[in-house]
Design goal:
The complex is a heterodimer of chains A (about 575) and B (about 270). Chain A has about 575 residues and is of the alpha+beta class. Chain A contains 27 helices and 15 strands. The radius of gyration of chain A is 25 Å and the shape is globular. Chain B is an all-alpha fold and about 270 residues long. The chains are: A alpha+beta (about 575), B mainly alpha (about 270).
Chain lengths: ~575, ~270
């Protein structure tokens, strides 16, 4: 047994309102640079829908992920190593810009500069690729909220996969439609096929926290990873010629704060915590013959942090005590393994994805109420799950490789929680039979309710910090996106914008984020010798150091007023969490 | 043998080698981030799918042909009983197929680059210069081959260019042999040397990181923190090691943690 720690995320889809805040904040933080205009590390898809890039789930076309060869061993779906090298000069199944979309901006200048005339000036769309006038025809969420579903709904690869019976029930007529949102980011898989596809070996998994990163120095732009990833969550920066992907906001995770997408989630639907898993068994688990057993195999990899044997093995591997502690409190472990309500996205790709989803229990209560039933009566609820507007078959294709029973089990648990908690809220005695009907205990239901309904910031995000004695080693193992006007504003080298050695981003961020996280003043005024890092400034107030002192005397007078936060006694910050 | 010959065939090759090797080392150290294929497949792939493999496989075959022609002495092939005619027929037929494939490939690539809007937008001045040099070297090479076929008086490169090439590696350049070759060979060799001299400073560098090690590496890559302690992100330079003593158990240096890192490790 080789115990390793993995940072993972769970999303409870019932709470996603499809506001795209996660996508926008992520883009502002990571991909607002030239070359990454079309890159969405995080995107929110309306399902049914084609997803982003279009129809990425159709692996017969895109050849992402793993499959089993005749001897039952894992093999990249796009071919073995020799075949990959032979295809290096023109990757045969790489998505093109038309599969993503042609990024554009608007000619806003025309609105103020147009000469006076009878017509209102307009801001025409301009392609960010060619710089010419363009016709906007597609985007990362063009089919948002079922836009165009009557025409294009059948293009959803899942819909095409489902048998006719279920298809009859997936109606795109207005009154019978269903939809839900699926936010997606890199899965930070245990068995990543992007990594296996990389000829240069530039993609790596951090042994400390399992975050999958691209070494920007080692990447040579062979772009095999784009083909390899079945989720199409690795992108080619067409300006720098390097692959880029979601970093799980590693500079934030290292100091114990959640990713940008999770931090800004309006619905508070995201949970971040760590898993302990057995790294030795990953390949074996990914090679499970029956696709529908992959979920169970993946769950078996997750080790119980309360098991003394596991703890001993983890200590032997040098996993620090506070990480073990965090593993015990991990909300993702509770949702995925203890309560078994979180499911992996497309386990049949055999990559062992580490972003999990609690499937949506569509507006079932209201539906039953409209029909004149008691919407929260367990009998009615359980019976109605089979006839949900979101067909169980559809969810099963997404989360369990088509095993409807697993999805139904989860949905029944969610329904049972509502029924069980209603009795308590109404002051009645809790009905243990409801819990037993779904194979749970009352205590487990209460735990699930606590996690899903009222968990506060520090319960939703249990993230152990990277160890300070290791911090300067962890930062910049090789990944940094701080080039070309990027987050760290690196310099340009002699070969133009893509060249030169990237500047380290982590040193400053580590300190600045940490001081903001722990300081009294949300602007972090006391730190950085009175200067403000604009990249970390959230527009909150007007911090003193926004305009740094010009001469020495000013600087001196500033430094006398600032205090050293590291020597200051800790103060209670629990109160400030309540508002999150 | 005059001074010009000595400079061109006795000195210049070593200058080019120094620039090539020095340039590669310098770029590897200084500009790993710029070391990429700069693929434009994202913009256009219909034409690339044909042209790029045609060019790349063609140029690899040309490379093999050059190595065989330059490295294997004439006496060796004669020793195994291969006649002059047979050798030249083989070299010419395979070489022409590879050369024409390469030429068609690169012309298609250049046409694609010029005519596809986004690809042309992504073309730098450096790229344009590189294309001129690369296309020029290929054309000069093909011209040399064609001229050699139709000119009955042409000098056999296997008694001129090849001995000179081999002599370079034992640091005793046979300037006279190279000087005796025909002008077309002189032009091709000079152009080739110019191409090698600019190689490290163009996108051509990607050829030097052809990912052959992919065949031998495991699929899943874990990276852990390095074993040597570092302050900040820059590696410690010789003479600037922090104060401390060698840790006998781990072989690591124990040092006092930097002050800014010594605060409490409270988990939020």
């Amino acid at each position: 047994m080789r115990v390793m720690a993995q940072v993972a995320m769970v999303m409870t889809l019932d709470k996603c309102i499809g506001c795209h805040t996660c996508s926008v904040t992520c883009k502002q933080a990571w991909t607002n640079r030239a070359g990454t205009e079309y890159v969405w590390f995080n995107n929110v898809e309306t399902r049914p829908g084609q997803g982003y890039p279009r129809r990425y789930e159709d692996q017969e076309t895109w050849k992402g992920g793993w499959e089993l060869n005749k001897r039952g061993n894992l093999k990249l779906k796009s071919g073995g190593k020799l075949k990959k090298l032979a295809q290096l000069f023109a990757s045969p199944v790489q998505p093109e810009l038309k599969d993503y979309y042609e990024p554009w901006t608007y000619d806003y200048e025309n609105l103020v500069n147009a000469p006076a005339g009878d017509d209102f000036p307009v801001a025409r769309p301009k392609s960010l690729i060619t710089g010419e006038d363009t016709k906007v025809e597609w985007s990362a969420n063009w089919d948002d909220d079922l836009g165009g579903a009557t025409e294009m709904g059948h293009l959803d690869p899942i819909i095409q996969k489902l048998h006719k019976e279920a298809n009859d029930r997936i109606k795109f007529e207005f009154e019978q439609t269903f939809m839900f949102y699926l936010p997606r980011l890199c899965e930070h898989c245990l068995n990543p096929s992007c990594m296996a596809s990389c000829p240069s070996g530039a993609i790596y998994k951090r042994a400390e926290d399992g975050i999958v990163l691209v070494d920007q120095d080692q990447c040579r732009g062979w772009r095999q990873c784009v083909t390899g990833c079945p989720y199409k969550k690795i992108y080619y920066n067409h300006k720098s010629g390097k692959a880029e992907k979601c970093t799980f906001c590693y500079p934030r995770i290292e100091v114990g704060i959640p990713t940008v997408c999770a931090e800004t989630c309006v619905g508070r639907m995201r949970y971040i915590g760590i898993f302990l898993y057995d790294a030795d068994k990953v390949t074996q688990a990914a090679a499970t013959p029956n696709e529908q057993d992959l979920y169970e195999a993946q769950l078996d990899l997750m080790l119980d942090p309360n098991d003394p044997e596991v703890v001993a093995a983890a200590r032997q591997e040098g996993i620090p005590e506070d990480w073990l502690d965090a593993a015990r409190k991990s909300p993702v472990y509770a949702l995925a393994k203890t309560l078994r309500v979180a499911l992996p996205l497309h386990p049949e790709y055999r990559t062992m994805p580490m972003v999990w989803y609690v499937p949506p229990l569509s507006p079932i209560v209201d539906l039953l109420k409209e029909q004149g039933h008691d919407g929260e009566d367990p009998e009615n609820l359980f019976g109605a799950i089979e006839s949900l507007r979101i067909p169980v078959e559809y969810l099963a294709e997404l989360f369990t490789a088509g095993d409807t029973e697993l999805v139904t089990d989860v949905l029944r648990k969610l329904a049972a929680m509502r029924a069980y908690m209603r009795n308590i809220t109404l002051g009645d005695a809790p009905d243990e039979s409801i819990a037993e009907a779904v194979g749970m205990t009352g205590a487990e239901i209460k735990q699930m309710y606590r996690l899903m309904a009222i968990a506060k910031y520090d319960e939703r995000y249990v993230i152990p910090t990277a160890h300070v004695e290791d911090a300067h080693n962890l930062e910049e193992i090789g990944c940094s996106l701080d080039v070309d006007g990027g987050p760290g504003m690196g310099q340009t080298g002699v070969f133009g914008e893509a060249s030169g050695r990237p500047m380290p981003v982590a040193v400053e961020n580590f300190q600045a984020l940490r001081s903001r996280q722990m300081g009294e003043d949300p602007t972090g005024n006391e730190q950085l010798a009175g200067r403000v890092n604009l990249l970390n400034w959230d527009g909150n107030g007007s911090p003193d150091g926004l305009f740094p002192a010009r001469n020495r005397e000013d600087a001196d007078s500033l430094s006398t007023t600032s205090r050293d936060p590291w020597t200051r006694p800790d103060h209670d910050t629990a109160g400030s969490d309540g508002g999150r | 043998m005059n001074i010009l010959d000595t400079l061109l065939w006795g000195v210049l090759p070593y200058v080019v080698m120094a620039v090539l090797i020095g340039g590669l080392i310098w770029r590897y150290k200084y500009d790993q981030f710029g070391w990429t294929t700069r693929s434009s497949q994202l913009y256009e792939s219909r034409m690339l799918r044909i042209a790029s493999p045609l060019f790349h496989f063609g140029i690899l075959a040309v490379l093999v042909g050059h190595i065989v022609g330059l490295v294997i002495p004439k006496s060796w092939t004669e020793a195994v009983g291969m006649s002059e005619q047979a050798y030249h027929f083989l070299a010419l037929s395979i070489g022409t197929v590879a050369g024409v494939g390469t030429l068609v490939g690169i012309v298609m690539l250049i046409v694609r680059r010029r005519r596809t809007g986004p690809v042309f937008m992504a073309t730098t001045g450096n790229d344009k210069f590189m294309y001129v040099m690369l296309l020029g070297a290929i054309l000069a090479g093909l011209a040399t081959t064609v001229l050699a076929v139709f000119d009955p008086n042409s000098v056999d490169y296997r008694v001129t260019v090849s001995p000179w090439f081999r002599s370079l590696w034992i640091l005793q350049p046979d300037v006279g042999a190279m000087a005796a070759a025909s002008t077309s060979f002189h032009i091709h060799v000079l152009w080739g040397m110019a191409l090698f001299a600019i190689w490290p400073f163009t996108r051509l560098v990607h050829a030097f990181t052809a990912p052959l090690h992919y065949l031998f590496r495991p699929y899943i890559v874990y990276r852990t923190r390095g074993s040597s302690p570092r302050t900040g992100s820059a590696p410690v330079r010789r003479g600037w090691e922090p104060i401390g003593t060698q840790d006998r158990d781990s072989g690591r240096r124990r040092t006092r943690p930097p002050r800014e890192h010594s605060g409490s490790t409270r988990v939020k």
